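User: 3-phosphoglycerate dehydrogenase, Lysinibacillus boronitolerans JCM 21713 = 10a = NBRC 103108:
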Amino acid sequence: MRIYFTFEPRPDLREPLLAEFPQVEFIFEKSLSNEELQQADVLVTYGEDLTEESIQYATKLKWIFVASAGIEKMPAQAIIERGILVSNVRGIHKTPMAESMLAHILAIKRALPWMYEQQKKSEWSKKAQQTELRDSTALILGPGAIGSEVGRLLQAFGVTTIGCNRSGKEAAYMNTMISFAQLKEALPQADIVISVLPKTTETTHLLEEEHFAAMKNNAIFMNFGRGNLVDEKVLIQAIETKQIGHAVLDVFEEEPLTSDNPLWTLPNVIVSPHVSSHSSRYVERSLEIFKPSLTKWLKGDTDLENVMDLSRGY
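Assistant: Predicted structure for 3-phosphoglycerate dehydrogenase:
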């Protein structure tokens, strides 16, 4: 069996993989090669390098392991037509992303950005507008692995959590649950609104003008899912008209954000360039998911962890 990685794990991660699976021929490269793709039985990729054209070269390919949670940049239809199984690392991001979200929330609540600006100006001032996180309410759109982890951390700080998904079905570390249909009615309760929703047809522009109008004017809005959640013009208007207090954005409709985009300079906006999931342990955690799945695959078992339904987008 030939397994083709389109990235190179560090030697301390690669060597144990080779030792654990001596019967497998591993190919490690820093980019996608159609020549190697022609010979691969299994592909391990971040997903962004695959195209409809390259899939045509993958005549032997039976399984794609995506070392990423999102698949929106992959040629889904071409993969479906070929009957290739796809699995990913869903859940791998929960620790770094939840820590990133909590860091931003605490920084805003305790006025850290203001303090940093005062330090730059060498100004001693005690006029910081600091508030407490305790006794706040957070509404979390998409309480899956990531949303539930941030819910767990927020509950430890004495925050009430409201989870919101398509069905309203119960999720971990949520005090209450609502469906998308109940979202507008629940927004006035929230001090913090966090989205970690995937990109699907249903989530595209899920938040509209009426939703921002329903939020508290001092609410913190955070988008750490996908940029399709809200039309950028609607978001900018909500910030400019002070319908919300702060926006922390890790994802955008168009990435990278252009240098002339007003989000860079609007007050009370934090631009995080899609880095909240980054961690020095990323590949390590990816391989922790890949290895048990590979063990199953070698035995002919296709019931792998995190098998994806490409037709639904997750």
